[in-house]
What we know:
This protein is an alpha+beta fold. It has a single domain (1-119), classed as 2-Layer Sandwich (GMP Synthetase, Chain A, domain 3), CATH 3.30.300.20. It contains four helices and five strands, in the order ααββββαβα. The strands form two sheets. The chain has a three-stranded mixed β-sheet with strand order 3-4-5. Helix 2 packs across helix 3 (89-102). The N and C termini lie far apart (67 Å).
Amino acid sequence: FIPWAKIHYISALHGTGVGDLYGSIRQAYDAAVTKFSTNVLTRILEDAVADHQPPLVRGRRIKLRYAHQGGMNPPRIIIHGNQTKDVPEAYRRYLENIYRKVLNITGSPVKIEFKSGENPFAGRKNKLTERQMQRKRRLMKFVKQKK
Length: 147
């Protein structure tokens, strides 16, 4: 159902087990509003990637660069890198479980978001040098003669 939540058995008829519930509520709240530094989150990310690398996507490795906290209650961890839109759901769950285990977050979900930088060369047309233009013209003459 929700693997990160602690299971409590209570009785509405007798009122047993309710006292233990308040301790878990407090623990979940404390875990949900804790602040984590970028340095700590990035080190955890580096260790997780060293233990289990992200899978290849179209023959290229997904590169996860750094992580920082994007919000609290629930804790939101934003991971920056290349090709992050292609991260499989299984690897996302792996990272979520690693962060939950290392940071000792119990009773609260951990939200993982991925962000990629923009390609600085997207939308730019390649300008050919004069020498490249001459070579292109020469090759095009050969292609036209062949027909």
